[in-house]
Every structure is written in structure tokens, then in C-alpha cells.
Please model this.
Amino acid sequence: MMGKIRAAIFDFDMTLVDSSYAIVDCMNELAAKFGLREMTRERLLPFLSYTLVDTWREYWGDAKKEWLDYYTNDVIEHELRDMHLYPNAKRVIETLSSSGVRLAVASNRRNVKKVLDAVGLTDYFDTLVGVNDVASPKPAPDVILKAAEILNVPLDSVVYVGDTDFDITAAKSAPVKGIGMTTGSFTRDKLEKCGAWRVCDDLLEILPLLGVAKQKW
Model:
């Protein structure tokens, strides 16, 4: 029998929010500014598990400081404005929080609080861990381990919820139970092959997995 789940740690992009349209628009604003090759959403999706600069290195072959400065100072507000929570995301987070499950976000983003603030979820989470807080980004387990350490919960009582192979690999390496979401670019089959403990199509599906009853909404 599975032990009680005491903490749920979440990825951010394509797990809690669909940020893909916002990010591709911002990438193309950057591309237009610096004469770079345009990006499509389909081409972007596989990179959403990467850090921002690693995405640029993979796609454009470089990640110049002037690009990062422009994105951070002039473009990021467009991204924050246009990302959207997935249906049921807020209700699921509210339900978990009110049920006593400790909550965290562990992401390859640089500033996790900024994006959580933008979608109104910050206050539900006990801690937020980004790539600047650890030595190595996912698929290394560092962000998950850091979040679990702050939450002060044993790893066998933790689930990590994410949408990519990086997320599942990081969860297995931690090791915690990895829940794969099909809300990004990875199919159920791919997530299962990566070693996901469970795979879900909607965030609502994680509630019974964690022994939490859906409230009357």
C-alpha cells in the first residue's frame, strides 16, 4: 500500500499554465529585434522543459547577454500577461492546500515567484524553487530535492507533477513519484516510457491519486 502523500511539487509551464502561445510571441519579438530566425509554437513545445538560455542555444545557437537583458526588461511583461491557467488548476491547488498537502513549485524558470504572481497562485504554495536556487536544472533532480528539503518532508511522501521527460527523469532521480501530464507535448505513451508513476490528462485526476476528495465546486 502506498504511504500517505504529504507534499505535491509542481512544474509550472504546461503543467499549471499554458504559457506556450505567450512564450512563442515573446520569442518572436526577440527574434525581430535581433534578426533571428522566427519560432513556431510546434517548434517551441519540445524546448519548454529547458531553461530560457538553453532554449536559445539549441534553437539559435547562442544566448547573448543583450538578448537576456532585452527579454527580461522589455518582453517578459507580455509573457506574464498572456499566459493562462489550465482549467481546474486553481481549484485543484486550493483543494490540496485546504486538505493539508504541502505545496511547492520547482521549475527551470529563473524567477518562479514572478510567474506565480501573474496567475494569482503564489499564496497557495509553501515554497518556490527556480533554476537560480540550485546547481543544476532539470533533468537533474536539484529543484525537486531543494523544494522537498524546504518542505521538510520525506521523499517517499512526495509527488512531482510535470509534463516532460525532464520532469519524470528528475522525479525518478530524486527519487519521488512522478506524475506525468499530457498537457504539454508529451503523450501518455512517452511519459509512461520515461517512467512516470502515473499519467493524467487533467489536473483533477491527481486528487484521488493523493487521497484527496474533490470538493463541491
